[in-house]
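Task: complex structure prediction.
Instruction: return structure tokens for all chains below.
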Amino acid sequence: MVRESTRLGSNAALRRYEDVRELIGSPENPTPLVRVGRVTKDRKLDLYLKLEWFNPFGSIKDRTAKYLLEGMAERGELEGKELVEPTSGNTGLALAALAALAGKRLTVTIPDGVPEEKMVLLRMLGAEVWPTPDDLCPVDHPKDGAIALAHSFVDGEAYGGRYVMPNQYENPDNVRAHYETTGPEIWKQTEGQIRYFFAGFGTCGTITGVGKCLKERNPRVQVIAVEPQKGHRLPGMKNLGESKPPAILDRSVIDHVVRVDDGPAYAMTKRLFREEGLIVGPSTGAIVHAALEFGSGKEGIAVAVSPDGGFKYASFFTDILGDEGKPAI
Amino acid sequence: MAHERHQEEEELGVARSIDLTGEVCPMTFFKAKLHLERLRIGEVLEVLLKDGEQMRNVPRSVKEEGHQIVHVRREDDRYRVFIRRQA
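Output:
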């Protein structure tokens, strides 16, 4: 007697999934939008935070990694190849998880300042991790040592063309991920009423993709980019004066750029923990600080991106806490 | 790496020998740096480099890092560079 399969299959309404990849944010399964009501008290700005750490591998990069790999697979670029990518950590985590699920090896080159927690997680997912100093070649090289090192795997004769790079800084599928998922979700979740959108400069996929999406629907939506200071300690963000602007950045969708220093970024991160109960990464603090500064005196619905959560940043937070929270004796 | 060493090179006492001719910048310098870091201070790393960009950049970069070039020998279009690890 043949036993019929009793598999139930996926059912998004019941939050039951056949595969962890189905949890990656999409219009069918959007990441949550949560009001930031306490730090915005006394303001007319209606600020919502899009919690991208609800993605299965912990960050907004899950969307990017999915689109990068699917695009490469469709073009036949993955067959028999190994993957290498320069990444601050989150893209590496997402790529490592997806690569592991596809039976592929991943090598990641990581810049200075990435927490130990992220490197260990990458290795747990089976990736080979190359920590790279930003000023790798002391003589005359660009500051982004990790990006250049990743290219060395692709271009070096020693590797016989074995390596391919998804290349989140130059691959238009990065922008497409946000144009097709993050942007439409935000539009739908704000019922078309969004007036201000805030995201950080990093690979610039989010600001470009969401910016394009929102402006196509309403040209009056203002798109504000958040830029960290030079020499910042905000993993994932880029100051476009000291780092090469990513090829995928489309500045025409950006209306304003707000610069945020590390101090205010971390101070706001602490406020989000304590006043809003939001366990966020420090780039979120930077983006929310910028939103409040820019939004001062303004009204309407605003959405800021929270790219990742705070669990991987214990070593960073230790630095800003000093003796806070230790027994007061 | 199987090749003939000259007498003075034997006397240097090479601890480790690597071929970087198949690498491109910045991996060329990065691998030299990583291998140097695995030596004890005073030990010598032998590095095979191509003429051109590799020879223009790598010896300068390792000297900027504080290491010492103790010997260089040309072999057609390649160079054997002997580097002593300093602190």
